[in-house]
Amino acid sequence: MPTKKVVVLPGDDTAPDTVAAAMEVMRALRMDIEFVEFPPGEQWVRGETDKAARAAIDTSDSTLFGSTSGKTNAIVYLRWGKQTYANVRPCRYLKGFRSPLADPDGIDFVIVRENMEDLYLGLEGPLTALEPLHLYSRLIRRELDTSERGIYAIKVITERNSRRIAHFACKLAMRRKAEGYPGKVTCTAKYNMLRESDELFRRVVEETVAGYPELKYEQYIVDDFARRIVQSSKDLDVVVMPNLYGDILSDAAAGTIGGLGLAPSGCYGDDYAYFESVHGTAPDIKGMGIINPTATMLSAIMMLDYLGFRDQAKRWENALRKVYAEGKVLTPDQGGSGKTVEFTRAVVANL
Fold first, then answer.
1. For 311-320, how does the pLDDT look when each residue is reduced to its tens digit (9 = 90+)?
2. Tens digits of per-residue pLDDT, 104-145?
3. In the chain, what are the domains?
4. Alpha-carbon distance 123 to 17, whole Å?
5. How far is CA 69 from CA 14, 25, 55, 282, 295, in A?
6. Number of alpha carbons in the 13 Å side-chain half-sphere of residue 233
7. Measuring CA to CA, how many Å separate 47 from each of 64, 90, 279?
8. In Å, how far are 18, 109, 191, 230, 339 from 322, measured between CA atoms?
9. How far is it, in rounded angstroms, from Cα 126 to Cα 143?
């Protein structure tokens, strides 16, 4: 296998600590990877570093990205520039995770979040700008009153993006089925109220799954699904949903296994993918050396699998499992008193 090139963007606040931890393990695994490392967001020079990062991304095989509070500016290019339309957020309980549930064993599903549109296009403005449209509400059965002082936000759901995320979810469910998972796709959205936008998403997903006769299909209104994440998450396999719901409900899913410090993600396009933890930059614990690097490590494991280093990814995952099963060196969010560097050394020692 030829040398792979990976861009490393440490991110902001405490994120560089988690990326440094992941890098320590990857170097210990001694893989044929060329790392192109950038400084933390606080050291970026607007325009100059942005341009260099985009150029590096364009010639790389993947990117490991730390969370950003806005200082690291490459996230927009990684998502929309590289068209990484499928945000994959696994939710899997490992023995030793500090779950609030009485019996979390067996939680192992994946949220597939559409990553391109919905409310995340940032189409907002003053309500008065809508006046020429004379918008009519089918619910309140009258024209929208644009004389009120307020802000609008536009939700966009397209058939194209809905269909390609549905196909991605189905292909993932097929791969998981081959590994022994149920082979089921669950769709969730607010299609009972948003009878055009979310209904379009639901209908396209249902039609797409019908083209995969080996898969089971189910659908739930998003508020009901929120309950199911807590009450019956062991029944889930691959769950596909629009952008906003995926962002919110993946955080709720992380809560069932023990918190955001355990939640990885990967953003996949047709010819590129980047990987980052679900959590933010945690500025409240910056400089304390106690942030949990597990989410970033699991994200990096996803990246290694994507790049073809599956044996090394498995070694890393097994080492991580052992550290949690032993429970001797865990970070404070998981009930321990260990530092980030101590946790990382324990993972390396178990490789």
1. 999 999 999 9
2. 999 999 999 999 999 999 999 999 999 999 999 888 889 999
3. 1-96+259-351 (3.40.718.10), 99-118+164-257 (3.40.50), 119-154 (no CATH)
4. 34
5. 10, 25, 22, 9, 17
6. 26
7. 21, 34, 26
8. 19, 21, 43, 26, 17
9. 17
